[in-house]
Design a protein that fits this description.
Elements lengths: L4 E3 L2 E7 L1 H18 L6 E6 L3 H9 L6 E11 L2 E10 L9 E9 L3 H11 L5 E9 L12 E5 L5 E2 L15 E9 L3
Parallel strand pairs: 3-4, 3-6, 6-7, 7-8
Antiparallel strand pairs: 1-2, 2-10, 4-5, 9-10
Helix pairs in contact: 1-2
Bound molecules: inosinic acid and magnesium ion.
C-alpha cells in the first residue's frame, strides 16, 4: 500500500485508489452513454477541482457530446470560505441543451447552489449533476445530485484534481487527512 504523504502542514493517508476511482468513472460513463444517446449532451466542468474527473469521464464518452469549462472558487485551506467567485464564466449557449454539470465534490453545496441559476436562466432542456464525491454530513444547501461516484465522510481529501491550498491536485489517487497528525513547523 502507498505510504502516508505530507501536503503543506498536514498528513494524509491513502483513501481511494486510482483503480477504484476509474472503475466508478467507467460505470458513470456507461450510464451517460446509454441515457444520452442521440441527444448530444453538453458537459459543464467546474474548474479547478474537476479537471481530472472530467477528463477521465469525457474520454469514456462514446456518444456525440460537447464540453465547456467554468471556474468557480469558494475554498480557503480545508474549510469553505463561504464566498463563491466566478473567475471564468460560461461562454456557451445552453438554451435547449441537455446539460450535465461535472463537479469534483459537493461539500456544503454552496458552490453548486450559487452556480445553477446561471444554467437555469438560459433555459436548457434538461439539467443533471454528476459528482465524483459527496460529503452528505457537510451539506447544508440541499442539492439534487443525479450521479455520485463516492459518498464520503466529512473529512478533507486531496488528489485526483482536488487540492489543499493549491497542492495535491496531481496525485493520481485520493488521500484523506489524518487530523490527529499535524506536522511540526
Ligand atoms: P462547497 O461549495 O462547500 O460544496 O464546496 C465545493 C468546493 O470546495 C469543491 O468544488 C472543491 O473545490 C472544494 N472542496 C470541498 N471539500 C473538499 C475537500 O475535501 N478537498 C478539497 N477540496 C474540497
Ligand atoms: Mg478547490
Amino acid at each position: 500500500m502507498t505510504e502516508m504523504i505530507h501536503v503543506h502542514d498536514k498528513c494524509f493517508v491513502p483513501y481511494l485508489s486510482a483503480e477504484r476511482i476509474i472503475e466508478k468513472v467507467k460505470v458513470l460513463a456507461a450510464q451517460i452513454n446509454t441515457e444520452y444517446k442521440g441527444r448530444r449532451p453538453l458537459f459543464i466542468s467546474i474548474l479547478n477541482g474537476s479537471f481530472m474527473f472530467s477528463s477521465d469521464l469525457f474520454k469514456l464518452i462514446t456518444i456525440e457530446a460537447e464540453i465547456c469549462f467554468i471556474k468557480l472558487a469558494s475554498y480557503k485551506g480545508t474549510r469553505s470560505s463561504g464566498q463563491v467567485i466566478t473567475a471564468i464564466g460560461l461562454d456557451t449557449d445552453l438554451k435547449g441543451r441537455d446539460i450535465i454539470v461535472l463537479e469534483d465534490i459537493i461539500d456544503t453545496g454552496k458552490t453548486i447552489t450559487q452556480f445553477l441559476p446561471q444554467v437555469y436562466n438560459q433555459q436548457p432542456s434538461s439539467l443533471k449533476i454528476a459528482v465524483l464525491l459527496h460529503k452528505p454530513a457537510a451539506t447544508v444547501y440541499p442539492v439534487k445530485i443525479d450521479y455520485t461516484c463516492f459518498t464520503i465522510p466529512d473529512k478533507f481529501v486531496v488528489g485526483y484534481g482536488l487540492d489543499y491550498n493549491g497542492l495535491g491536485r496531481n496525485l493520481a489517487q485520493l488521500y484523506q487527512v489524518k487530523e490527529d497528525l499535524l506536522l511540526e513547523k
